[in-house]
Amino acid sequence: MAQEEGRSLSEARSRVGVLHGITDLGDKLHFYKRWAPDYDQDVAALQYRAPRLAVDCLTQALPGPPHAALILDVACGTGLVAAELQARGFLQLHGVDGSPEMLEQARARGFYQRLSLCILGQEPLPSSEGTFDAVLIVGALSDGQVPCSAIPELLRVTKPGGLVCLTTRTNPSNLRYQEALEATLDGLERAGAWQRLVAWPVDRWELATSELEVGPGTSDSDGFISGIVYLYRKQDVAQVEGVRPSSQPPADL
């Protein structure tokens, strides 16, 4: 059993390591096409925690009962975020992804009321302005996936006063993208589009895929790389007045 688990982890590290090195969108979509059937098994082997952490963060900040909130899961993949949302009582879930094969896996879970094919950054989200109470994008903010220039599109489909939750890795291979992402997020805040509620650094994000990932932004002692969860509220003067941004994690996490 231990030998099988070790082989599974080794294979997962190999595949995810290849993914982290792909910066071309077409190549990345081709990779996801082949990876879709094994995706859940691989990220479980890597102890990937971003979906749970993001949903925990969102849940504590979203007002009202979960079943009443309309949620958009951007770059939904196989539906790992939806599984976390449903476990917390969220029932109105829409998802979009750029990979038809990943959407097939998500559809099989039965958690989404609507699933759409959309390559964010090349086309707009298939929703009207101000549709969703909350929008999440988990695991897709890196080179070759969703460009920073697409972040305003997340805001467009969020209701005024609604929440946007984003995650990204902070390990060495993603630092350049994270710097560009931070500049985009801060620029939108300075423009009055939204206000940061949380910026939560997380040490144990997922297991590193290779020794090359060990360095600044990596927890050397246990082999985990780090990441960060951001939470923003779309500008609505009546709701954000007096709210101060925080770098602290949500309570009880």
From TrEMBL:
Q: Does the keyword Acetylation apply?
A: yes
Cite the GO molecular-function annotations of the record: S-adenosylmethionine-dependent methyltransferase activity
- Write out the entry's keywords from A to Z: Acetylation
Out of the domains of life, which is the source?
Eukaryota
Mind telling me which InterPro entries this protein's record contains? Methyltransf_11, SAM-dependent_MTases_sf
Q: Which residues cross the membrane?
A: none
Question: Where does the record place the Methyltransferase type domain?
Answer: 72-165
Query: Which residues does UniProt assign to the signal peptide?
Result: none
Name of a matching Pfam family: Methyltransf_11
Q: What is this protein called?
A: Methyltransferase-like protein 27 isoform X1
